[in-house]
Amino acid sequence: MKKLISFMFLLIFPITVYAYPEYLIASGDSIGIELKSSNIIIVGSYEIDSYNVLASSDLEVGDKIVKINDYLIKSASDMQKIINEINTDKIKITYKRNNNLYNTTINLKKEDNEYRSGLYVRDAIRGVATLTYIDTENKSFGALGHEILEKTTKSSFDADNGTIFKSTISSITKSTDGNPGEKNATSDSSIIYGTVKENTKSGVFGSYTANIPNKKLYKVAKPNEIHLGKAKILTVIDGNKVEEFTIDIQKINDSKTNKNILFEVTDKRLLDITGGIVQGMSGSPIIQDNNIIGAVNFVVVDKTNKGYGIFITTMLEEAEN
């Protein structure tokens, strides 16, 4: 008689558990942000004597220049200095693309009696945004609610480090349908609030290095605790004063990564001054039922009294990764 042997298979599925804090400071403060790269990034090109370096070489927008003729390049000024010292019409460039190193040779052209590469490059970018939260437990912060993109290429800026610092709103360029406005600000980069560790699709995150402000703590709401109807945003429209403005949440979408909350600005004063949502408002915390539920991150361009927000839990989960 044959024996029947049974096997039991145990299927193990990975479970991700996020241990984000229960309470946060909902900030709303205006901040300046500077992101820096340890190499320079190609953001475009221009023609010299009908010659365009990007059309005539292996280089592409987004490539990081690491070396020129084996000289290490760490800034845009380094690049021009080395080109001037070499003083020749052809150079070797070592560049990084997708974390791989490559070499190529490009021709230089003389312009105003100096050799030029014909490349537009950046080693840093700056902007104005709103600080979303401060985690008092681990002295970390989250801001913006979306990624900082390089303005010329509209591509992600691959930063190696950065800072957030004091910013004061001086005026508002009002939004009109089809033409989003912006917060105009003056910044003082000597008054640093924190250091940037990540520039992600869910926001900018890092360590809060200044003294923790004595502000109210708000409970972190999960997506299933958010409902349609009245809420408010915290933001600065004049100087450094954080103010509350009323909004109406019209749709909640948990299937999208960062456009989770569709809302309409209902605050008459904010509409009169800003026309709704303006650039620089990204990161403004959204409060409902005394909970922090998310952050403003996009404007509806053709109807600027409306905007989108990202779930606060999405930002906190990204900060943990």
Structure, described:
By secondary structure, the protein is mainly β. The chain has two domains: 23-36 and 124-320, Thrombin, subunit H, CATH 2.40.10.120; 47-117, PDZ domain (Pdz3 Domain, Roll). 8% of the residues lie in helices and 50% in strands. It has three helices and 22 strands. The protein has helices spanning 76-86, 268-274, 312-320, and strands spanning 23-26, 30-45, 64-68, 71-72, 90-97, 100-107, 109-111, 114-116, 119-135, 140-143, 149-150, 155-156, 161-173, 182-200, 203-208, 217-220, 229-236, 242-252, 261-265, 285-288, 291-299, 306-311. The protein has an 18-stranded mixed β-sheet that branches. Strands 7-8 form a two-stranded antiparallel ribbon. β11 (149-150) and β12 (155-156) form a beta hairpin.
Short key terms for the protein model shown above:
mainly beta, 321 residues, 2 domains, 18-stranded mixed sheet, Pdz3 Domain, 50% strand, Thrombin, subunit H, 22 strands, single chain, two-stranded antiparallel sheet
